[in-house]
Amino acid sequence: MERAGSSRAAVFALAAALGIALLAGVLYLATRGDVASPGPGSTSTQDEPPTSSTPSTTGQPVPDEFEVAIDEIIDFIEAARNEQFSSEPQVHFVGDDEFIQRLLRDFEEDRDEIDRTGRLLVALGLVEEGVDFAESLRKLLGVGVVGFYDPEAAELVVRGTELTPFVRVVLVHELTHALDDQLYDLDRQDLDDADDESAFGFSVLVEGSAMRVEEQYRQTLSSQEQFEATEEELSTGGDTDVSDIPPILTEVLSFPYLAGPGLVSAIVDDGGEAAIEAAFAEPPTTSEQLLHPDAYLDGEGAVAVEAPPADGEVVDEGAFGELVLVELLDSEVERVDAEQAAEGWGGDWYVAWEEGDSFCVRVDFVMDTAEDRAELLAALEEWSANQEAADIAEAGDSLRLTACS
Questions:
Q1: Closest Cα partner for 135 from 125, 127, 147, 126?
Q2: Is residue 199 situated within a structural domain?
């Protein structure tokens, strides 16, 4: 398992705002341990008066070593980023029960939206019929997340009451989120409400920024401490059977932590450290820009695509995106072929509707060139051959995919 990220509120509002881009929203989650991207109701701490960073543990006195360690980590982050905290976030170390309660407190409120996203993924063959998608998500979060930063409360919550090397690494990651919140405001309601992949792009940028500082901190640890941190990270949730969790969840949830560092490195290499601030002001808007950072640096956005016709009342619509297209093809086509077929992605739009007991989705894809279009058509036809209720057709300059559960 890797890690997890987003504001706690955004984690469970994911499907409501993003539909398929839930894979953008779910992406906020992650699988190892953090929560810090845009979230409904979150607030920046930039203009708030300084507060104490004194950590707390439930019902126990706070050891001096916790305060010292947090102060040292804040100093490290400020030096690494050449920026200063305007206020020091509250840090809470809590036991398993309290941690899960805080993390999942809004889960049921957004259960219907999460269930709808699961039905959509079933229609696409990315989740097997009969799988309880919401419970899979809950389970993955419960075993995978070990810490999160909540912009709404400007506080960091860490699972556990021991200051291990791994916990210190998590603190670096989460406190970097806190600094970015103060500098750039991680509460982006406009992104949360968008039908495109902007929220997705922002989450990858946020995680890439934190991963960059985290890796610098890891390099300051001794070889033994690095070994212990990695061993504890890999063992997180190791006693829980996750074999029944849909692979699409773990694939997508790990993406920000895999793609984020490369994106941030490309931004810095192109424009220096000052380019980070500009990127937070205008984050990536498509998963194409995340898979291929040059597209972001060149300002290559998505081609506008009209919504395809639906065969019923539309219950969801939005951008599908190159990443989800790759994951879709990868379920039936070799990964390298899936990536190559999707690489010429230019833009798309999907609509979803209910048809009796079935849930249907239709997507129109526009590719960069005629050659790209032919390559994607061949891959989609190979994919659809193994789907019970899927159809691929040409619609003008677009390729149209229709699938039902």
A1: 127
A2: yes
Which of the listed residues 233, 263, 293 is the one where a domain comes to its end?
263
Of the listed ranges 32-36, 227-231, 243-247, the least confidently predicted one is: 32-36
How far apart CA 223 and CA 230 sit, in angstroms, is 11
Contact by Cβ (8 Å): 280, 31: no
Q: Tokens at residue 297, please?
A: 């640096």
Residue 284 in domain? no
**56: Cβ contacts below 8 Å, ≥ 6 apart:** 62, 90, 91, 92, 93
Pick the closest to residue 362 from 16, 20, 13 (CA basis).
Answer: 20
104-113 CB contacts, 8 Å cutoff, 24+ apart: 104/138, 104/141, 104/142, 105/8, 106/8, 106/9, 106/11, 106/12, 106/13, 107/12, 107/134, 107/138, 109/12, 110/12, 110/13, 110/14, 110/15, 110/16, 113/13, 113/14, 113/15, 113/16
Query: Residue 210 burial (CB < 10 Å; 0-12/13-18/19+)?
Result: buried
Provide the residue range defining the domain that includes 224. 3-263
Name the helix (H) or strand (E) containing 160: none
90 and 26 in a common domain: yes
| Rg of the chain taking only CA atoms, in angstroms | 21
pTM of the model: 0.84
pLDDT band at 226 (very low <50, low <70, confident <90, very high): very high
What pLDDT digit, counting tens, does each position of 10-39 carry?
Answer: 332 332 222 333 444 343 333 233 433 333
Per-residue pLDDT tens digits for 275-285: 999 999 999 99
Boundary of a domain, candidates 225, 245, 263: 263
DSSP 3-state of 329: helix
Q: How many domains is the chain partitioned into structurally?
A: 2
Whose tokens are 């040409």? That residue is 394
Looking only at the bridges linking them, the beta strands covering 30-31 and 56-57 are unpaired
Residue 282 CB-density burial (10 A; 0-12 exposed, 13-18 middle, 19+ buried)? exposed
Q: Specify the 3-state DSSP secondary structure of 269.
A: helix
DSSP H helix total and E strand total for the chain: 18, 11
With H, G, I as helix, E, B as strand and everything else as coil, classify residue 239.
Answer: coil
Q: Is residue 309, in this structure, part of any structural domain at all?
A: no
What's the rounded Cα separation, in Å, for the pair 186 and 159? 22
